[in-house]
Amino acid sequence: MQQLLRRSPVAVAAFWIAVYLAIALLPLLILLLYPPVFDERSFWTEFSVALGFVGLAMLALQFALTARINRIEASYGVDIILQFHRYISLIAFSLILIHPVILFIDQPETLRLLNLFEAPWRARFAVAGTLALSVLAITSIWRQPLKIPYELWRTSHSILAVVAVTLGLAHALGVSYYLGLFWKKLLWSAIALTALWLLVYVRIVKPWMMTKRPYLVEEVIPQRGNVWTLAIRPRGHEGFQFHPGQFAWITLDISPFRMREHPFSMSSSGDHPERLEFTIKALGDFTQTVKDIEPGTKAYLDGPYGVFTSDRYWDAAGFVLIAGGIGITPMMSMLVTAAERNDDRPFLLIYASEGWEDVTFREELDALVDTLDLTIIHVLRQPPEDWTGETGYVDQDLLERYIPIHRGSRHYFICAAPVMMDQVETALHDLQVPATSVHMEHFNLV
Are 156 and 258 in the same domain? Predict the structure, then answer.
């Protein structure tokens, strides 16, 4: 079994899905062991209680999904895990809300429990926990329209999550109908304590470990397209090796305990941990300040992360890299690393940019043509008058002209704005490129 998990990424991914389902459904399995003596409780009452237990278990599992556990992340990628976290949180929230609604409909007398002045503490715990969960959901879904600063939101998000799970468990223990046996209380308490430990690990232990492995900014290199390359070196340690295409979370000039970190892909070779380069486009409040960072500024890294790497496909016949704008960053890392390794496989880079002067790494890419079997197709939306290359957008017609006839023999990597990624993914599907050969990198992580 262990050999299968090591050799097959699909088997590893399926394994973790099975683990998640087993833990989420554990409450229902517990109910089948030494169930309480039923006193003519209706099906709908039992059904609502089952939904509540499953919802609470799913909430506890959210702490594991956001803990950046390497073994889990390596099966899916952080972007997919965080997307799953968002969607599954809404499902858990819905289950927890449906639980009391069904009770109120099936047993109207339970509405009196909403009177917090007279209700027992177990009911107060339930109401307070549901309110905390509601605030958490509202501030997460509408954080940007509400203009909540990211650092403040992240701190409050953690606090509200702990409050919701703690009060939910207190409510279940207070009712005690299904958790009357000591071992059942112990099991649920262990689930809650594990979730709390994961939060402590992410917010306290990991930042403390990062303070023991600092980095220093060596230089900031201007690039075409209002882009800057941040070069850093490890201080007092050897740094970390990474697979080309991966990324890390960077904390600059502040303590890692501040939780003000940003995810960026490495653009340098994965085989040189002594100098890491991150190429960043000035788009937002933080990225606009990268050009002003002084050499010697202290930095902290949490990484590497990501499955968007050519290293996972050592047996591929070649690669098709499709980039838009700053999406060239992980592609550059793949190409530089391949050149240093004397990789003789063919690489096709289709690179969409606004204009010719906006082509980041233009000269560096031209130099790589001399050391790699590399074909570069530039696609410009606003070409100069003497331009004879491709223009417009990367659509199905353009892809059909350049990608190999035997389309399943290559692996396709796409990194661009969401609209372009969706269009390219659809086009590749229509061109009968196998879905298992298409890999995409999303940067909407925060």
Answer: no
**Strand (E) or helix (H) holding 228:** strand 227-234
Query: Is pLDDT of 20 > 80?
Result: yes
For residue 38, give the DSSP letter.
P
Residues forming a β-bridge with 221: 229
CA torsion through residues 155, 204, 193, 119, sign: negative
The answer on 193 and 60 residing in a single domain is yes
Residue 23 lies in domain = 2-209
The b/e string for 233-262 (b: 16+ C-beta within 10 A; e otherwise) is: ebeeeebeebbbbbbbbbbbeeebeebbbb
Handedness of CA 342, 343, 345, 350 (dihedral sign): negative
Residue located via tokens 């060239």: 328
pLDDT tens by residue, 347-397:
999 999 999 999 999 999 999 999 999 999 999 999 998 899 999 999 999
Does this model's pTM top 0.85? My answer is no
Q: How confident is the model at residue 401 (pLDDT cuts 50, 70, 90)?
A: very high
Distance spanning both ends of the chain, measured CA to CA: 36
Q: What is the pLDDT of residue 307?
A: 86
Identify the domain boundary among 241, 272, 305. Answer: 305
What the block records as the tokens of 294 is: 């002084």
